[in-house]
Design goal:
The protein is mainly alpha-helical. The protein is about 55% helix and about 5% strand. The protein has a domain of about 100 residues: Winged helix-like DNA-binding domain superfamily/Winged helix DNA-binding domain (Arc Repressor Mutant, subunit A). Strands 1-2 form a two-stranded antiparallel ribbon. The N terminus is likely disordered.
């Protein structure tokens, strides 16, 4: 161990990496360590936003979103009137609620899921009484999807339980409106395939 508490291995790895990037005949001595401002400039010149601090924060934000989402998904509902659905079924249900009259094909395309997975999830939701299918009045070959009143009531109950869950985790001073605004911007942004 060196004085900083770090093992010598990390220093050796830096030296090996540096030596493999030099033309033959140059010194293989370890490069001088970068000071904090030089390290920051090196990172910011290659990061997506060009701002090292923002890039670190965005990476941390994505990581936190994933972790919080898993925590919410792991919550066991206390309300017996909530119909359990899988995370994928919940995604489909929300999409149909946001896009009443959508078709199964449009939903699968927009959510970037296989049509076979979409069909299975929609069948399950229909069996649970959460969506209905209708025929397009202009083209009988096209199926239109709608959420049921039961689905709307269940969604309201789910959101109430989630509100209780998060309220118990957050201090009263947390700026929920600001956090919600950031998540809405992310949710409403075009997907990678559209950019």
């Amino acid at each position: 161990m060196n004085k900083s508490g770090h093992g010598e291995r990390a220093h050796g790895e830096d030296a090996r990496t540096a030596s493999t990037n030099r033309p033959s005949g140059e010194s293989t001595a370890s490069p001088a360590p970068l000071d904090e401002s030089a390290r920051s400039r090196a990172v910011s010149s290659t990061g997506p936003s060009g701002n090292a601090s923002r890039d670190r924060q965005l990476g941390e934000l994505a990581d936190r979103i994933v972790r919080v989402a898993r925590r919410i998904e792991a919550h066991r509902f206390q309300d017996p009137l909530i119909t359990p659905v899988s995370p994928l079924e919940a995604l489909f249900l929300r999409y149909v609620d946001d896009h009443p009259g959508t078709s199964p094909g449009a939903m699968a395309r927009d959510l970037m899921v296989r049509s076979s997975n979409a069909s299975a999830g929609l069948r399950s939701l229909e069996g649970k009484g959460l969506i209905t299918r209708g025929t397009d009045p202009d083209d009988a070959r096209v199926t239109r999807l709608f959420v049921t009143d039961d689905a709307r009531r269940a969604t309201a109950r789910v959101r109430m339980e989630w509100a209780h869950l998060l309220d118990g985790l957050l201090p009263p001073t947390a700026n929920v409106a600001e956090a919600l605004h950031v998540l809405e911007l992310l949710d409403d942004a075009p997907g990678e395939r559209d950019s």
